[in-house]
Amino acid sequence: MTFLMTVEDERVIKTLNDELDRKIGGFPSPSLNIVEGPNGSGKSTILQQIAWGALNRGLRVRYLTTENTVKSLLSQMESLSFMVTPFFTKGTFRIMELHTRGIVWDQNVAKYYLNVLLDFIKRDKWSQAFIIDSLSYILIKAKDDDVLDFFSTCRNLTDIVGKTFFIALHPYAVSQEMLIRIRSICDGHLMLSIREMRDRTFRILEVLKLRGANKATGIIVSFEVDPAFGIKVLPFSQAKA
Ligand SMILES: Nc1ncnc2c1ncn2[C@@H]1O[C@H](COP(=O)(O)OP(=O)(O)O)[C@@H](O)[C@H]1O
Ligand SMILES: [Mg+2]
């Protein structure tokens, strides 16, 4: 029994949030996953929770942030009780800042950034889990072919090299048609949204796709971001709007 569980655990990344793991059952690894949702819907929080799980599973994790600095990401994660500094010091957690503010985006600039990023990812023999938070700014002005090329290359690296990707994006960053194509390339597709009920705001996580997982997809989890705890799963679920 113990042996079986160990074998199973090696192929999934858990979040180490008991409620979330009980509902989702872990992310198969290697895999290519996208986390979609508007501002404030919890993309970064989920990605940080996943990074925490991956680090504790002993994986080498690279976190590319367009929103934080190394220092602010570390303190953000620690504030949510993900005590990542020891992993950072030990060297199994690496953070990369990509500053997108102030850049005037057009098709060519977007293509350039996508190529630089792809090139980096291809050469990166170090990371086992690669987290991008987020790809939105780069995607907004990019040509459809360049976007598809990016995701297809990530797909190949997942299948051939065995990397696991988690990529955040805002739904408005690409056209609806492109979203459908990107989703079909991915193994995992998480959708986040914000809901209001009376005077209460909470968030919804929908697992729209999770290829290779032993839990059924279509799982809906309501949660809050608790300042001291990170993701706090709420005891009620709500039907799709
Ligand atoms: N350390 C924290 N303490 C309390 N709330 C937080 C903390 N970090 C983020 N939040 C809240 O969690 C929500 C989701 O934030 P975030 O994960 O950054 O969303 P996104 O990345 O989709 O924009 C926001 O309302 C934000 O204010
Ligand atoms: Mg964010």
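^ adenosine-5'-diphosphate complex. The chain has one domain: 2-233. The longest helix spans residues 107-123.
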